[in-house]
Amino acid sequence: MSRSNDPHAPARASRHGRATGARRWPRTAVGAVAVAALAGGVFLAVNAATGTPPGHYAGSTAGSATAARTPSPRPRPAVRLPVGTIGGYAVADRSLLLVDKSRLRAAGRRVLPTLVRYPVIPARAGAAGSLARGLFPLVVFAPGYLQCEGSYRSLLRAWASAGYVVAAVTFPRTSCHASSPDEADLVNQPGDMAYVISRLLVISGRKHGVLSGLVDPADIAVAGHSDGGDTVAAIAANTCCLDHKVAAAIVLAGAEWPPMGGSYFPKGTPPIMFVQGDADNINLPADSLMMYRADTTGPRFYLDIFGAGHLSPYEGHGLPEAVVARVTTDFLDRYVARQHPAGAAMRRAGDAAGLADLVRGGHMPP
Asked: In whole angstroms, how far apart are CA 24 and each of 158, 287, 353?
């Protein structure tokens, strides 16, 4: 959608002011070629030693309710999977209707439809696909203002295909279905995400059910875009709303939201990746950079997407979306699944010539 018909634009533009542009110069053509391969679909290889798909935890097998937590390395693929996949899993989904009545006085009855995408072992040689059983990291996703999970389908499927259970929340008063949208309700959304995390851990802990035994309670991340990014920054890094179960966070075009109160980036803030299009005139680059520079307590990264606006790096199917999907997956692999080689892969993927630049630890983008 254009800024002129984006109902979110006036609210954000009024509190953030004007954007300024910067010219970018390519360093090499290799990065662009590699990302083009991602955007067009990639060939995925099964681990020749173990027979497990990429991202599968060693010891987990189809039909098993539990698995060892030692992560296996992610090999190169051998099966062609559709666009929107990065790892070796096919993806299934399940809709949940979650209702939080624990905050009636402060926030009212919170009805939170949640779509959960989860890994499935793909069919091979004509056999039917099978449910991937084992402990998988959880990513809970917060859409932007007047947005719903369907807008981010490719990105969320990419994470799930890499071995993550991905739960996208539909917020009651800021989603695409809201009959009377109210952006001020954003202050209640960190509590919504915390509730969804808790309920999914309960559901996964049950002996029976499609999601039984899938979620590792020690490996939880949150991610969100725009107002959803503001929500994620609060639950991961603001004393108002901290959920200490969160091991890492991804903030896509987000900002600090003053009505939250509290203090941002206290000691013990988990690793955070900030992603920002440098031509975004709704959430300005300055807003993401301010958070990135203020976060001095732990690992933090800033992915600068050249020439990108507010929606396209996260909601489409082009090269910028492929860069975001690859770099954020590597970030999750490194800081949630704790696969140390993914750190180097993340830095390589983020250095995409003419498309993006990844910096870390307070260093500024060019």
From this structure: 28, 20, 10
Written as six digits, the tokens of 114 are 């949640």
User: Distance of CA 261 to CAs 21, 103, 241, Å?
Assistant: 31, 18, 9
Within-domain flag for 4: no
Which of 360, 336, 169, 122 lies closest to 248, judged by CA?
336
In a domain, 294, yes or no: yes
Buried b (16+ CB within 10 A) or exposed e, 234-268: bbbbbeebbbebbbbbbbbbbbbbeebeeebbeee
End-to-end CA distance of the chain: 29
- Let me know if residue 11 belongs to a domain: no
Q: Report pLDDT for 61.
A: 28
Q: Contact at 8 Å (CB) between 179 and 195?
A: no
Query: Which range of residues forms the domain containing residue 126?
Result: 24-360
Contacts of residue 167, defined as CB under 8 A and 6 or more positions apart, other chains included, come to 96, 114, 115, 116, 117, 138, 139, 140, 141, 196, 200
The answer as to whether 15 is a domain residue is no
- State the sign of the Cα–Cα–Cα–Cα dihedral 33, 38, 40, 42: positive
Paired strand residues for 79: 44
Q: Which of 23, 168, 177, 19 is nearest to 98 (CA)?
A: 168
* Two tokens, residue 98: 């979650």
Provide the domain count of the chain: 1
Give the span between the Cα atoms of 311 and 314, in whole angstroms: 6
Contact 295, 271 (CB under 8 A): no
Can you give the CATH number for the domain in which 283 is found? 3.40.50.1820
Strand partners, 356: 305
Task: Tell me the pLDDT tens digit for each residue of 300-316.
Answer: 999 999 999 999 999 98
pLDDT digits (tens, 9 = 90+) for 292-302: 999 999 899 99
> Which of 86, 74, 236, 218 lies closest to 156 in space, CA to CA?
86
